[in-house]
């Protein structure tokens, strides 16, 4: 019962919910946004989805590697050294969402859209992997 009353677990739960909601929103609505609102082809929209998922694979691996390395070099026993990395990944996700919403237009190249998708995948899947480890 003490676990449910602790503010840290609620903060981690809120962080996971935010990252999962961002990932789900990008994957579910990203294609429609590119096709219907910006007039891009189905190929460009599908490339965004593929890049988000590929970035997610990379983000999960990168999150594990970086947090394990941070834990090895950290001597702090009071706080988790993984949380700042989750915040960094989340900031990358916020930058990618900003670029997708305000920088991508009708003339944007598929390479640029794909690069944003890759960063978005890393930024959303990375914290999800970290929050699962930190909460346990």
Automatic annotation (TrEMBL):
InterPro entries recorded: MFS, MFS_trans_sf, OPA_Antiporter
Entry's Gene Ontology molecular function annotations: glucose 6-phosphate:phosphate antiporter activity
GO biological process, one term: phosphate ion transmembrane transport
UniProt-listed PANTHER family: GLUCOSE-6-PHOSPHATE EXCHANGER SLC37A4 (PTHR43826)
Protein name in UniProt: Putative glucose-6-phosphate translocase
Source organism phylogeny: Eukaryota, Metazoa, Ecdysozoa, Arthropoda, Chelicerata
GO cellular component: endoplasmic reticulum membrane
Pfam family of the protein (one): MFS_1
Chief site of localization: membrane
The keyword Cytoplasm appears for this protein: no
UniProtKB keywords: Membrane, Transmembrane, Transmembrane helix
Transmembrane residue ranges: 45-65, 85-105, 111-135
